Every structure is written in C-alpha cells, then in structure tokens.
TrEMBL record:
<protein>
    <submittedName>
        <fullName>Cation diffusion facilitator family transporter</fullName>
    </submittedName>
</protein>
<feature type="transmembrane region" description="Helical">
    <location>
        <begin position="125"/>
        <end position="143"/>
    </location>
</feature>
<dbReference type="InterPro" id="IPR058533">
    <property type="entry name" value="Cation_efflux_TM"/>
</dbReference>
<feature type="transmembrane region" description="Helical">
    <location>
        <begin position="172"/>
        <end position="193"/>
    </location>
</feature>
<dbReference type="Pfam" id="PF01545">
    <property type="entry name" value="Cation_efflux"/>
</dbReference>
<keyword id="KW-0812">Transmembrane</keyword>
<feature type="transmembrane region" description="Helical">
    <location>
        <begin position="199"/>
        <end position="221"/>
    </location>
</feature>
<keyword id="KW-0472">Membrane</keyword>
<dbReference type="InterPro" id="IPR002524">
    <property type="entry name" value="Cation_efflux"/>
</dbReference>
<feature type="domain" description="Cation efflux protein transmembrane">
    <location>
        <begin position="19"/>
        <end position="229"/>
    </location>
</feature>
<keyword id="KW-0813">Transport</keyword>
<feature type="transmembrane region" description="Helical">
    <location>
        <begin position="85"/>
        <end position="105"/>
    </location>
</feature>
<dbReference type="InterPro" id="IPR027469">
    <property type="entry name" value="Cation_efflux_TMD_sf"/>
</dbReference>
<dbReference type="InterPro" id="IPR036837">
    <property type="entry name" value="Cation_efflux_CTD_sf"/>
</dbReference>
<keyword id="KW-1133">Transmembrane helix</keyword>
<dbReference type="InterPro" id="IPR040177">
    <property type="entry name" value="SLC30A9"/>
</dbReference>
C-alpha cells in the first residue's frame, strides 16, 4: 500500500493497533462485569467501566482514522486531517466521563456506604489474570508501534510520545498501560478485601483507578487540544526547512517561517523569503515553484507550501516576527 493510500485509509499499523485494542477491551469488559456482579467487588466493577470506556475510545479512534483520511474538497481545501484530533479529543473525554467518573463514584460508595460482603473472590482472581494476559497482547502491539516510531525519529519513547502527531498509538498505549496498572490495583483491592474482610480496600482501589483514568484523560485531552488548535511542525523538520531554503542560491534570507500540522504526516509551510534583488519577476516565479516542489520531495510530510517574497528590512514585518518569536527570532537573524 502506498503512503498516500495509507494516509487516506487511516494508516495500516494504527488501524491494526486500534482494532486489536478494541476487540480485547470488549471481551475484557464483559468478563469484568460478570466477575464484579458475582464477587460484589467495587474495584472489579470499576475495572469493567474502565474497559467499557476503552472500547468506546477505540470506536472513536477508528472513526478518527477513517474520516481524517478523506481527500480535500472545495469546502475543505486542506483536507480533513484535523478530524483525527477532534475524534481523539472526544475519546479522551469519554475516558473521563464514563470510566473515571464511574470508578470514583463506585469507590466512594464502597468506602462510605454500607459494607458489602465479598463472595467467590477466586472468580475475581481468575478474571483479573485472564484480563492481564489479554491486555498484555494489546499493550505489546501498541508498544511495538511506539518503539518503532521512536527509533525512526532517533528519540526516546517519552520524547516521541510528547511530539507525536498521530494521537491513535499514543491513546492506545496510554490506555493499555493504565489498564495494566488498573488490573494490579483491582487485584490488590480484591485480595486485601478477601484477607481482611474490609471492603474499604476495595473502595480505595476503585478510587485509585478513577484517579488514574482521570490523569490519562487529561494528558490525552491536552495533547489533542494542542494539535486541534494548530501546533507547529516538529522543530527538527522546521530547522531542516529553514536550512534548505537558506541554502538556495536565489535566497538572501529567510525572514519568517511558519508551519502548522494539518493532520497526521501533513504539514503546511508558509515562508517569507528575501530573494536576490537581481532576480527578474519570471526568475522569482520559477524559484518559488521550484523551491516548493523541492520541499515536497525533501520532506515527505510537507503537503502545502506557500512562499512570499518580502524585503527583510521591512520594519513592520520584522516587529511582527520579533513579537511572535522573541529571542529565537534574533538568534536566526530574522
């Protein structure tokens, strides 16, 4: 499958990661819900809500992957790439609204409500063990995708997750990591309830699961918010574009360079360039067309390029650039 085809269908590996996570979460949600009813464990029911929230999240991510791949049209000349960020933001909200809220409610109800007798704890242990094994399969796929992406960009995993422009693998990876931690918390709650006879431990486990989900929802929500409102491209790519334009024979100086993520692997480049004054109008036109084409070829994620010829001595333009970038603008000689 070509790069363009993968972009329009949502990306092969991201789709596989999301589908695998969705199928696993649905099966686990049913198991946990049954075990929660049988054992009377609030932590188990909280984990069931956790898995239900994760299942809804995968549905939203699949929607994001499909809808964001539609080609540009008259109403959306830059395409639908940012839809991926919108649906992923809704996925983060669903984690908090359904998973975290239910887990916190269940936890406080267990701690401060009427004591609940635990029954058949062995069922809970078996289900939690099976759920951990199944979640590990999904987590392994998500981790492999994240690790591969980090290696391709020569970055640590955490730095890669911080700057990634595809929310799907980050969402699944954090979801599955939270799921594994949540299962450990649920096991601790069920075990301590079993050993001590006190449901307080079960309730505390539910509260911790709710707080864990709230943190994950916040991190993912913040990530998608930044992407949705228009984050600049990776700084390594921005520096590469600047250096490439500055090295062109017709260019005297790159006065201003703005980039924005239009979607996953889609970058808009707007450059204000001071060209050699000896160029004719025809030479200037040819230089702009050639440089735009070369940027497309040199940087695979660059999809749109706009180059505006400007004089670097213009005081209003210089003031605007300095106001936007501050000391960084001075460092680059803007």
């Amino acid at each position: 499958m070509s790069e363009e085809s993968e972009r329009q269908t949502g990306g092969g590996e991201s789709t596989l990661t999301v589908l695998l996570a969705g199928g696993v979460n649905l099966a686990i949600a049913i198991m946990k819900a049954v075990a929660g009813v049988i054992t009377g464990s609030g932590a188990m029911l909280s984990e069931a809500a956790h898995s239900v929230a994760d299942t809804f999240t995968e549905i939203l991510l699949l929607t994001a992957l499909r809808r964001s791949g539609r080609p540009a049209d008259v109403m959306h000349p830059f395409g639908y790439g940012k839809e991926r960020y919108f649906w992923s933001l809704l996925a983060a909200v669903s984690i908090f609204a359904s998973g975290a809220t239910f887990a916190l409610y269940e936890g406080f109800s267990t701690v401060f409500g009427e004591p609940v007798e635990q029954s058949s704890p062995i069922v809970g242990y078996v289900v939690l063990a099976l759920a951990f094994a199944m979640e590990s399969v999904s987590w392994t796929q998500a981790f492999r995708q994240v690790r591969r992406g980090a290696a391709e960009q020569n970055r640590t995993i955490w730095k890669f997750l911080r700057y990634i422009d595809d929310p799907a693998p980050k969402t699944v990876f954090l979801e599955d990591s939270a799921a594994l931690i949540g299962l450990v918390l649920a096991f601790a709650g069920v075990f301590l309830h079993h050993v001590t006879g006190s449901a307080v431990y079960d309730g505390i486990a539910s509260i911790l699961i709710g707080l864990l989900l709230a943190v994950v929802a916040y991190v993912l929500g913040r990530t998608n918010l930044r992407l949705l409102i228009g984050r600049q491209a990776d700084l390594t790519v921005v520096r590469g574009i600047r250096e490439y334009l500055s090295a062109a024979g017709e260019v005297e100086s790159v006065v201003d360079l703005q980039t924005m993520l239009l979607g996953t692997d889609q970058i808009l480049v707007c450059a204000r360039v001071d060209f050699d004054d000896a160029l004719s109008a025809a030479d200037l036109e040819r230089a702009c067309v050639r440089l735009a084409a070369e940027l497309h070829d040199e940087f695979s994620d660059v999809t749109e390029v706009f180059i505006e010829p400007v004089p670097r001595s213009d005081p209003e333009l210089r003031a605007a650039v300095l106001a936007r970038y501050g000391d960084i603008a001075k460092r680059y000689g803007r």
